[in-house]
Fold each of these.
Amino acid sequence: MEAPFVDTSSPAYDADIHSAHRVARERSWYARAPFGLLFLRYDDVNWLLRDRRFRELGADALAGAGIREGPLWEWFGQILSNKEGAEHTRLRGLVSKAFTPRRVEILRPVMRGTALEFLDRFSADGACEFVSAFAAPYPVRVIGALLGVPPEDFARFHGWSRDLSFAFGSRIAEERPRIEAALGNLCDYVDGLLAARRRAPRDDLVSALLAVEEAGDRLSPDELRAMVTVLIFGGQDTTQCQLACAAATFAAHPDAWKRLAESPALAAGAAEEVLRYEPAGSGSPRLALEDLEHKGLSIPAGTVALPSGPAANRDPEVYADPDRFDIERVHPQPMLTFGGGVHYCLGASLARAELQEALPLLARRMPALATDGAASWRRGALIRGPEELPLRFEPTARS
């Protein structure tokens, strides 16, 4: 049987990716797409994530947009997610010595305090535009605390990160001036931050990255700049989109929202189910390094394949009744929102913690949650989610 075609560049796909995945997945474990192959089932997505005969698409995505030089090209070649083999292992090992689960756990009181501070600003109003009121500023504050960034710089960070997100969408060439301007500003800022921490170290991640050492090996200045810029960008944009996805999902499932408000101990399960049911990340494309075969399909070298986390997370062979949102669901296998294999998302523990701390507080302070008009979603990008999400709820008093 010929594999189905899924037009991932169409507005219809963006409007309901889950229906498109479900229809195609019922016919085949993969689909053909404008960019190459779209993997749809859990086991095959997991295989693609872990098979070392593929590498991250990386800067080849820029080449497809006609960009083969310049600051954006150089940055793509420097960031950890686009490194492979021994170089990736070395960098990840060094960074993991500084960016530890314990460092994330220490931030949980900051997360709770930040969430309550923002809720105090609008919970008595009974309505808000959720992205600007909470989803955008909350992760900016958290990543700022992690890196030791002054609060007065948060607004600039958010603007640069938003512009840089276009580098991971379908309009790279058109938005290149905007992307590279943001990247230049961010790199200049990070250089200043690194210089300040070299002079006067603090108890923050930037200082820890400067100090980390393994058998005499350290991160180079270019590696440090690339790592901190990625942490600033990734720690804001993806979490903002995931929080907005969570709020939109709960607005459509009021019983689950009420249940979470009544039982905040369900926070970890609620966060995990949101990440499965409506992930902000679509997956990171892979490039075949050699001719190979999988389940009878010949995959020539140079083929681009997307391991679709959203499709795998709703595979009925793994998740019973996968289109049902259930915050008390027992997950039989790890959902694939954060990828897998050697490129498993370095910030997964931070993103989980931010959701776990924010969601029960939001549920308690925004009862009877519902949408208050149409949401505006980011389309045509590897990171997706509402960019504007008007919500209404029963007003509550300040904490």
Amino acid sequence: MSSSLKIVTIVGARPQFIKAAAVSRAVASHNAAEPARPVDERIVHTGQHYDENMSDVFFDELDIPRPHYHLGVGSGPHGAQTGRMLEKIEEVLAAEQPGWCLVYGDTNSTLAGALAAAKLHVPVAHVEAGLRSFNRRMPEEINRVLTDHVAELLFCPTAAAVANLAKEGVTRGVRRTGDVMYDCARHYARKAQAIESPLMGRLGITPHSYFLATVHRAENTDDPERLLGIMGALGDISTGARPTVLPLHPRTRARLDELGLSVPPAVRLVPPVSYLEMVCLEKNAAAILTDSGGVQKEAYFYRVPCITLRDETEWVETVDAKWNTLAGADRATIAAAVAAAPGTDGRLAWKPIYGDGAASDAVVAELLAARPGEGHGGARR
């Protein structure tokens, strides 16, 4: 007689699908190894981010399971969007009656999934728990704090994340598993090798001969002074021999057009790239400039110096390790940070601070071993 465990996974944006795919692969491996004790995973896509690139090609290229439910919530103000998600996720959870509700990261989908599950007394497991930027003006910070305080299992990528939770009185149900994004980086780096040469040839670049930049956060794109500072810095550091490749986010393009800002000639604007193309560009860059949390970590995974175009980061370990520099949006500060960045010649020590690439297996094992109701969230109900 089999003893199965059902989990409902809540995701709402493309990066969450990629992370969840790592855990889904671990689920498949477990089911193959232990068919008498299978895990039945149901994936729910809230539709928080409508992304036309999430076509069949996206799922096929990255070996990502299709969602069982697509809620089609779409964009909107935070309160309205989260409220619509709550209503629809509640219906799914009531119908599926899972043993766990698994949420990822810090989006509105994360919070809505956690709240809907907690109110139905479905235990919540949070992947990427314990991260803190300590900036409560960021919606993501509110989402991650609230999710952590209703979760019963909290999967922390680092020791710093565990310490953050302890400072808030959250110690039960906390597990340091490593980072599922590191699992993804290792898996997709191998897949990306097949497209590396064609991509480099198409863009006219060679490994370590260019900078890579991404700019998309509202705090930068919606503040003309910050956006001007960042674009000015990109112009300052770029030359014909070492250009900056900038896959341009639609929000950023719209703001540049509104400001009438011309892009320096050595900054090569390219359309948004696929995930595997981004992996190729990250692995081979001389340095990366970004306001993305995920890209900061991927830079570290691939041992590429990073300059973060923000005033704070959740990924403090990368800064402590001196592979990442917080430069904000000041033109001179950014250019100086690039000039001072370490090369890729091994001058800096690199440590596996995000685990050994098996975080997803640890997540599945903990879900199977845990007894719902004994973790942090369960203790508080």
Amino acid sequence: MNIQRKKIVSIVGARPQFIKAAPLCRALRKTMTEILVHTGQHYDDNMSRLFFDEMGIPRPDYNLEVGSGGHGLQTGLMMERIEAVLLKEKPDLVLVYGDTNSTLAGAVDAAKLHIPVGHVEAGLRSLNRGMPEEINRIVADHCSDLLFCPTRTAVDNLRKEGIVRGVHLTGDVMFDASLMFAGLAETKSSILRKLNLAPGEYFLCTVHRAENTDDAGNLGGIVEALCSLGRAVVFPLHPRTRKLLSIHRLDDSLKRCPSVRIIDPVGYLDMVQLERNASAVLTDSGGVQKEAYFCRVPCITLRNETEWVETVRDGWNTLAGADTRAILRAVRGLRAPGSRRRPFGDGRAAEKIARLILKKNVV
């Protein structure tokens, strides 16, 4: 008897989503048909194609090539092009990841077409609606039929909003990826040799969130702190951040600071090696906060709040915001706790999500 396989349309568009998709694509394709849609939100080769190559992610079936732009323009173009794909493919489920404009566009399109939605990394809340990501994740959660939560905190957040149906505590697929690729990063990455870096003798910094890059005061405070750390700082520079450093006339300040080493964005394997061997990580990225936690490296978050409260609770993450003095204070107070709990699951989140999709009748 020929039983038709479930068809899943997975929508990705940005670096964190590529990482999450890597283990889940493998799990889904064992028993289901997956159509992979890349919105083109991240289109720089170092932030897109390199991730697909390194992590063995299947080539997208559709590349929508939306590119950059304001929230309205970018999201509108995504919705127009995603809708066309969904009408053509008629999937059983649309899978969205995280909290980007790609997430929002995919979830809203599917919900309006009455196609069930699954949200990977559901239930996260920063409680700061000034963040566009917070709006995206709230809307995606309220559009979703299956909500795959990485932590118990995420489940509790959804319950507070009255969302209890279709909620599943699966663990974090980024933790799956960290376990899956740790050995490969160790053997394949030569980034430390290329940059002439010694383990434990540098800080790693990433900055990309609008609350920091769009605000000259915030970005200036971070730049001043990086130049005052008194140790080498490796700074993979997001294309948008590079542009805004110039607009805010802060790029000259960095050029006059020899301890800060600006490099182009790197692939996943190189990033893992940079994180694992840093003395500390400074970031406004939610994904990098977790990756530092997985690597047992102290993190200073350049925001006043975080969705990943477990990393703070366990002592591996300090919230410093973008104030120069607060950042330097956090660096002086750095410590590495002796133990770590496992709030992000057992490394089999992708398998659990695939099993839930396969057995749940949400059509």
Amino acid sequence: MLWANLHGSFTFGLAMIAPIACDALWRATRSERAVVFRQWFLFALLALGAACLNPYGPEMILVTFRTVALGAALTTVAEWRSQDFTHVGAFEIIMLGTFGFALFRGVTLPWLRIVMLFGVLHLALSQVRHADLLGLLAPIFLARPLAEQFKAIAADGPPLAIRHGMLLPFLAVLAGGTALASLRGIAPAARITPENAIQSVPLAKAGHVLNDYDFGGYLDFVGIAPFIDGRAELFGERYMLRHDRALSLQNLPDFMRLLDEYRIQATLLAPSTPAVGLLDRLPDWKRAYADDVAVVHMRR
């Protein structure tokens, strides 16, 4: 229930119930399988019910299917693109380090656990946003097989009293880190926060605004209706692709039609957006503001 109210990835948690239940049935003896099946079936029903305890009920689960159905439009959003291995990053270091450890120690896994692990690894490689999902679920898949395989390590572990004694300092560090983060303030990244542009130009009174995808959330926050924001499943594949191709000038005539069709009176775009250079040269538009985060054009 907590997961369902924090992040949309909870649907993957529901999806993983089936393969984990199959793994439990595979490992159970023939006499135990009826009981194991009944327990997992009951758990699946309760988990599904708990996931529906949110302000939108089952609609939160359906949103996942509508988002996946966006198809090619997802590639226009950075977090839905595949991992970038043109430079060494944290994800690559952790992944290669884990594979190296498995080869060095001779780790073996049951075939169903391998399928589940490779499934979330595929998601993490194909879409950046699922790297956290791999970090969340992989330890759950690996915990029991590793504990059974390295019993000597588990037997040589610290006494129970020491392990329990470490809980309080751990919680203290966690609480201290949270308090420090709250004192320092938590804010979106500067590259998606066109605060100075909005304070300098009266966009709220300008009329319809055409914005970059990354600026939509901040426009929502300050009460200005965006052309597009992060709620991709509401806008749909066709709308998102048209917006992306227009601003990148892949379809220049359609960009001009879009300005008139939606009666756009102002634009709020990142400096690197190709449409910025075109707007600078159009006689009906003037540059009203620019910094390293955003550029504003107003219709004359």
